[in-house]
Design brief:
- The chain is of the alpha+beta class.
- Helix content is about 35%, strand content about 25%.
- It contains ten helices and 13 strands.
- The longest helix has 28 residues, at about 65-90.
- The mean pLDDT is about 95.
Length: about 350
Amino acid sequence: MTRIVAVHGALAPHRRTQPEITDMVARTCLPEGSDRRVLDRLHRSVKVSSRHMTLPLERYGELDGFGAANDVFIAAATDLGAKAVRGALQMAGLTAADVDLLIFTSVTGIATPSIDARLAGRLGLRPDVKRLPLFGLGCAGGAAGLARMHDYLLGRPGQVAVLLSVELCSLTFQRNDASMANLVATGLFGDGAAAVVAYGGERPGRPGRPEETAGPTIVDSRSHLYPDTGRVMGWDIKNTGFQVILDPRVPDVVRRYLADDVEGFLGDHGIKPKDVTAWVCHPGGPKVLQAVTEALDLPEEALDVTWRHLADVGNLSSSSVLHVLRDTLAQRRPPPGTPGLLLAMGPGFACELVLLRW
């Protein structure tokens, strides 16, 4: 058994409304004097009202190439990651010296030494802490990170693991790129981080910790890599940085595969979709959320927490599903002992499912 004992989210420092961000994108991505009506329509259609950005809006036009953007990523991801981990450890009643494993996931920047290594000294982690940096999982990285955390703790049930996700999506926006994929991405994605603390079943809980504040246990996980979908979502790596691949077929892939995946996974544990008391779903965008609702035949309100997250801060890539988990625990805590399902999809194209027990 793996017990999630704390989930803490952190957001980039500059909150801006969607119209303010749309104006910045028009200045930096569209040719001078061009018609911006398509951009305005796309940014309205994603149902995002505000987002958090790493830099002041006027700085984005000054980023000159991949190196400059990645330098900002390294500094900002280290700062925001430290804030997220410290907050999660404080919630869990643990110290940095208690951590045996630190998993780090991101898809919006690269660093060697990796961000987790840069955080070790700042946070006061032990010199023998195990580290697992993950790259390339995209929006599925938060769910996959939980699954790999669970795998580790099954073999080391007395230990403590931390999952950290940091995604600074605004640093990947491509200047002078008026492609539909870039315009959609600049309207949908925001910047944030999340940290999850978990321990194995043999570790005693925090003394005096009220049971109602505890998180769920992780029961099992499943991954599915879909055939012939390698160009549905991802990056093309250019001199200018990460150029987004975002195929409009994503909702169709969800409708084709997701129901069988979910029903089969739950069925292996004697659970039916109607038994699930909370769906912790990544906010892939309005069309993706509608496809998830239709594919799984969910009640209208089943993804309310996800929709609110999307409106408030946008899609934070791998961090988002962890923010939705935190918000579910805070706003719509399910009855104890009931099943929950955390799900996210990302490049590959792939689905990650994590079965929870509240």
